[in-house]
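User: Can you fold this complex?
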Amino acid sequence: MPTMNMIQALNDAHKVMMRRDEDIVVFGEDIGFFGGVFRVTEGLQKEFGKQRVFDAPISEGGIVATAVGMAAYGIKPLIEIQFADYIYPGYDQIVSEVAKMRYRTAGEWTMPMVIRTPYGGGIFGGQTHSQSPESLFTHIAGLKVVVPSTPYDAKGLLIAAVEDPDPIIFFEPKRIYNGPFEGHHDRPVTPWAKHPASEVPEGHYTVPLGKAAVVREGNELTVLAYGTMVHVALAAVNEQGIDAEVIDLRSLVPLDIETIEKSVEKTGRCLIAQEAPRTSGFAAELSALVQERCFYHLEAPVERVTGWDTPYPHAYEWAYFPGPKRMKTALEKVMAD
Amino acid sequence: MSDKDPAPLKPNRPKLALHVPEPPFRPGDKPDFSKMKVPAAGSAPRPDVSAAASETHPLTTALVRVLDEDNRAVGPWDPKLDPETLRKMLRDMVTVRVFDDRMYRSQRQGKTSFYMKCTGEEAIAVAAQNALDREDMHFPTYRQQGLLVARDYPLVDMMNQIYSNKGDKLQGRQLPIMYSDKAYGFFSISGNLGTQFPQAVGWAMAAAIKGDSRICMGWIGDGATAEGDFHSAMTFAAVYNAPVILATVNNQWAISSFSGIAGAERATFAQRAVGYGIAGLRVDGNDALAVYAAVRWASERARTNQGPTLIEFFTYRAEGHSTSDDPSGYRPTDEAKAWPLGDPIERLKAHLIQLGEWDDERHDELTKEADAKVRAAQKESEKLGILPQQGKDNIGSMFEDVYAEVPWHIAEQREQALDENR
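Assistant: Here's the predicted assembly.
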C-alpha cells in the first residue's frame, strides 16, 4: 500500500474522482498550471486539461458564485479557497446561496459541491493564515463541515464529500499536511511516513461522513477533538498517563452524537479541544450537547481547551496555540473532581 | 502630547467636502426631464456581432432605440419582427401588468404578505425572453416576472407561490415572488442582491465546459451593481469569455436611493463594460423592439463564442419598490408620467396600430382577456388557500430539504415542533 502525506492523499482523491466522473471541475487561485500553493492539485491540469482544472481570479466571492452557477447547470465543482482566512468574501454566496438552495427550491436545485480550504494555526501564519472559522459554517443550516486529521481519512473523506449530494466545507489542517503535530514545536517534525494512517489505499474508498473515529480507547475521560488537535490531545493524554478515550470527530456537521454519548456515558468526563477561539466556537456546541444528553453520567464539568478570544497573533504563536501545556492544565482540572 | 506628533496641517488649504449625490427632484418638485438627453431612434449604429468589445464603447453612452416619435421602427437595430411576434410581446406585457395589479391588490386585501410590481419595465423581461431560445437559462432578480409570463408559465403556479398555499411548489418556504422553476429556465430567486449575477456567469462557464449550445442571461438592478458580485461577474465573464448576457435594469431607483447613489452620476452602467473588456450596450428599456434587438445581438455573440455582453436597460420604476414602500416619501408622485421614454405598453401598442396590425378595440379585448385569465388563475389558486390559512398543516415539511437526508439533530427538532403543534 502506498505511503502518502496528507497533500498526496488529497491529490489522489482528486484524481480518483475526476477519472470516475467527468462532470467534476476543479478551480481556485493558483491551482491550475502551478498545482496549488500547497501542491494539493499538482498534476491535475496536465492530466484532465484546462476545461476541468483552471486558475481563478483572486475573488473568493466569484469563485463560490460561479461554482453555484455550475452546480445549477449540473456539473460538480470541487473548488479551493487558498486559506480559510480568506473565505469571507465568499461567505454571502456560501451562506445565502449554497447552503439554502435545496431548501428554498424544495429540492429542485441542489448544490453538490465541495469547498476545500486549508485552515488552522501552529505555522507562524499570523492573523490571516492561521484561523479556524469552522463555527461560522457549523452554524449554517444546509452545510456539512468536514475536518480530516490523517492522510487515510483525508482521501476517504474527500471522496465521500465529492460523492455526497450536499454542499461540504472541507477544512484541511495545514499544520499536519506533511506530518502529524503533537504541539511540541520545539521538537523536530516527524513525517507522515512514520504514522500508520499514512498507508493510503490506491483507488476508490470512502470514509463515511457523520462518523467519528475512536482513535484511542479509554475509560476515565472522553476527549473530543478534530484536525491538528487530535494529535495534540493524543500526545497529551499519553504524556499524562490518563486512560482517556480520544475521539476524532472528522465530521462536525452532521455530528456522530452516538459515539460521543456512548463514550461520555462510559467515562463520565469530557474535555473538548479546538484551535478556534473559545466564545461561540464549535466546542461550545459540543459542550452543550454533552451536558444536555449525558448530564447524569457526568462526574465533572465539561472542560474546553481552545484558542484565546483574540485574533491569531504572530510572535505569540505558542502562547496562543492550545498546546501540551494548556492540555495538561485542562486534563488535571477535569480529572481532579 | 508627545514630541513625536506629526507636523501640524499646512494652513490656507481649501477644506475637503464629501459629495453626496441628490436626485434631480424630491417630493413637491415638478419633475422636468427636458434636460435629459434622449438620442433619436435609429441614431445608434449597430456593429456586427463579431465586433471587438472595444468597438461597442460608443454604444455604452448612446441609447439603442428603434421606435421613433411616430411609432415607426427605424434604424439599423430594427429587428423587423413579424406582427405575430409583436402581438405576442404586447399580450405578454399586458398580462404582466394585469397580473401585477391583481397581486398588488391581493396583498392589500391581506391575502399575502408581500408583492413587487414591475410596472413600466414590462418590455425588458418580455422582449428579452422572446429574443432568446426556450432552453436558454435566466438568473433573474425579483423584477423579471415577465420572463415567466413570456414563457407561458402557468399564472396559477405563480400565484400559488405568492400565497404560499397548498399548490406552492416551494412549500411555503420562500417569500412571495421568489419563484423558481428549472423546467422553465428560471433560476431560484434569492433575497440577497447581486448574488445571481456571477452565478449566471458560472452557468455559462459550465455550458462552455460541456460544449453545450445554450447560453445564459444574468439580471441585476442599477442599485445592486454596487455589490461586489457585480464586479466578480464582470471579471469572470471577461476572463473566461463566458457565453452570458449580463443585463442591468437601470430603473433609476433602488428603493429610495436614486441611481446616482449607485454611481450613475459619473458614468452610465453600460460604460462599466469598457473597463472589463466586455461588449456594452445601452438600450431604451421602454422600447420592446430595441430590447429584443439588443438581446438578439448579444445572444448571437455569446452563442458563437464571441463572449459576454453587458446591456444597460434604461427605464423607470413607475411604482413603489414593493408593497412595503411608499415612493411619495422620496420622489415626486408624478415623476413616472414625466419620464421621457414613456410607457412600454403604450409604445408597442401604438407601433402595432401604426403598422395597421392593431386597433384600440382589439387592445381593449386583449386587456379584457388578460384580466379574465388572471382572475381565473386567481380563483383557482385561492381555492388552494391564501397566506393567512397556511403554515398550520404539515409543519414537519419545514424540516425537509435542508439536506438530502434529514440528519438526527433536525429530526429531533422536527419531533419537538410537531409536539408543540399537536
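Chain B touches chain A through 48 residues (CB under 8 Å). Residues 349 and 363 of chain B are 8 Å apart (CA to CA).
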